[in-house]
Design a protein that fits this description.
elongated; two-stranded antiparallel sheet; alpha+beta; 6-stranded mixed beta barrel; 12 strands
Length: 405
């Protein structure tokens, strides 16, 4: 049966080449398409977790819902000691956020001032790497600020110029100071770059009375995929006053958006596969319908209907297997190569900055399990495509098949 199937494949070259190429292109395209889709989603999520949001954040319960001074962390030292005891925590950074008015002689703008420890913050986010002008904050800075590009343009500020800030302290007292711009950053997130300024928390403590106090603590982890497990380890022995939340909760809207985008992506490629499936099935049907006499002859010399159906199955099996064997390593290599060397699309971060894309790199995702189920989908669809031609052939008895025109 195998040898007869191979002879038929060689004899019907046109049909064989068409079936082979359709299977090859389908498998290869599916691997690369899914790798690109998963890679772009993963990159978008990771980029968002590097700008300001982190994989895990620790709050006083009620802070995210109510806010205000009643829900601040009033014992940063206790939290720091707790985080230091968890090996999966890569780094962390206490932050104190306050809102106020930033003004110069000509312009004013509402702003979010964030007190940070510069060295710790640099380990948690890409804030330091986002510098485009001037310098990043240092541990010894006093009334110096590091501000977003869009905010600096709005207030017409440049390096070395001064600006006034008006806000309130933790005790409700009025607070104001004159600050000097030492650095300007650009993350690509317009809302963030147009509203955020950063100051050394050590100096902010003296201005707003926030020593050993933080709005929350941003936490980075060694392995992003283990964020939930690490979050549980942080929460396990934590004082019940506090809550630790992973990005699955903090960025739920974005994660849901990526899932929906994946669903639509699979629907799009699914439509392509439906077309390919029917094309292969039609080719199989045409092939069978033109070989009715041949199958009638095979039946007349003693082959059963089951053996003839098996012969058809072997033909599609050999062609599909060969195409999958060649397409899988090629598609897998492309996914692997571009996962290490991402595709660079100049200007994409500027175009899609509002969607969390802060890099011009478009990496592919290389995952052996994903590649396996990708090719299995194509493989199974190809094998199913022969069912209808088989059912059509079963309508003919050997005598009828021999007389078929």
């Amino acid at each position: 049966m195998w040898s007869l199937a191979l002879k038929n494949i060689w004899y019907y070259k046109g049909r064989s080449i068409t079936t082979f190429m359709l299977t090859f292109i389908s498998a290869w395209l599916f691997i690369v398409y899914v790798a690109l889709m998963d890679g772009s989603h993963k990159s978008m999520l990771e980029n968002s977790l590097k700008v300001y949001q982190t994989p895990i954040a620790l709050y006083t319960k009620g802070y995210r819902d109510e806010g205000g001074v009643d829900y601040l962390i009033y014992d940063v030292e206790y939290i720091s000691n707790h985080l230091n005891s968890i090996p999966q925590v890569d780094s962390y950074a206490p932050r104190f956020e306050t809102f106020g008015l930033l003004s110069n002689e000509e312009q004013s703008s509402a702003t979010m001032m964030v007190g940070i420890y510069p060295d710790q913050e640099a380990k948690v986010t890409i804030l330091k790497k986002s510098l485009i002008k001037g310098r990043y904050l240092s541990q010894n800075d006093a009334n110096q600020i590091y501000m977003g590009k869009e905010l600096a343009q709005r207030l017409k500020l440049d390096i070395g110029q001064e600006v006034a800030f008006i806000g309130s302290g933790v005790d409700g007292s009025f607070a104001s100071d004159i600050f000097k711009v030492v650095g300007i950053f650009k993350t690509g997130l317009f809302d963030f770059d147009s509203s955020a300024i950063f100051i050394n928390k050590t100096y902010l403590d003296t201005l707003l009375y926030t020593e050993n106090i933080a709005s929350y603590i941003a936490i980075n982890v060694n392995n992003l995929h283990e964020a939930r497990a690490i979050n549980q380890a942080i929460s396990k022995d934590l004082n019940s006053t506090y809550e630790s939340l992973s990005y699955y909760t903090l960025m739920k809207d974005m994660i849901d958006m990526l899932k929906i985008d994946s669903i639509f992506g699979y629907i799009s490629i699914g439509l392509f596969f439906i077309v390919i499936f029917f094309v292969i099935m039609i080719y199989g049907f045409v092939n069978v319908s033109t070989r009715i006499k041949e199958f009638g002859l095979l039946g007349a010399i003693g082959l059963s209907s089951a053996q003839i159906r098996l012969l058809l199955f072997y033909e599609i099996f050999i062609l599909s297997t060969l195409a999958i064997i060649i397409a899988t390593p090629i598609g897998g290599y492309i996914a692997y190569y571009y996962s290490i060397h991402p595709i660079i699309i100049e200007g994409i971060s500027e175009t899609y900055k509002d969607y969390g894309i802060v890099s011009d790199e478009m990496p592919l995702s290389f995952d052996v399990f994903t590649i396996f189920w990708n090719v299995m989908v194509v493989y199974i669809l190809n094998l199913l495509s022969i069912l209808y031609p088989m059912s059509y052939l079963s309508k003919f008895r050997p005598v009828e098949a021999l007389g078929h025109v």
